Amino acid sequence: MLEVCPQTCNACHLVDKTPRCRQVREMPSAVKPGAINQTFERMLRIKGLSVEVISRDPWIVKLANFLTQKEIDFLKDEQIRGPWKQAADMDGGGNTVHSTNRKTEVAWCDCHCQNHPVSRRLFARIGEVLRVHPHYTEAMQFLRYTEGMYYKPHHDSPHISRNVNHACKHRIYTFFMYLNDVPQGGATAFPGLNISIKPERGSAILWPSVYDHDPYVADIRTIHEALAVEKGEKLSVNVWWTQGPRVLSDNLGCDAAPINFR
Ligand SMILES: O=C(O)CCC(=O)C(=O)O
Ligand SMILES: [Fe+2]
Description:
Its cofactor is L-ascorbate. By secondary structure, the chain is α+β, with helices and mostly antiparallel strands. It is built from 7 helices and 17 strands.
């Protein structure tokens, strides 16, 4: 609307997306050097939050019973979630290609789903734990693994560059929620750290993809994988928290790709 019919929105000054995306790009970063350690240390003192420290360097924590029954029901609701699709990768030319790295089904939370009061409350709760505003997030990504499905080792923030022209910048935290118990298999494992976390209904795990001392550098120690589900199915949800305000960036049409600022 802003681009096609700006006069209607009294937004002629926004037609050229360069200035508005520059504004988004210049908004404060979600985490400054030192903030990740502080956030995790503070998390341990939050009353009513059950935090199990799985690793301190890099930080990996498990939050037992993080989700309420209402949130679990909501996140499992097909009407909210939309249809499952086989996970795919993008090739260099922006085309969708069959992924050899993963075999999972994926669905995304659309506008209706993201703006639902249950989602908004959930994002606000996670944001309080992380001390980051929910504007600094991607839409929820739902995952379903049936027997034999997996996701091989990968990093959630593989393409960090110091290119400040990305309005939404890169992923800094993964907040990963489990919606069910898996009878066998399906753990989330960090092969470099010898850590394996069993899915537990309603629990969440959290880790940073970047270093505390420099949140613009990927911490490859948090490379992780989803081990194959051996029995039953695994339902889970990703919420990625980003260094720039991804929600504003998307709403204003600023692509994830760098923009050539003049
Ligand atoms: O399913 C899991 O345990 C991990 C999923 C994951 O790493 C991802 O979606 O990026
Ligand atoms: Fe991942």
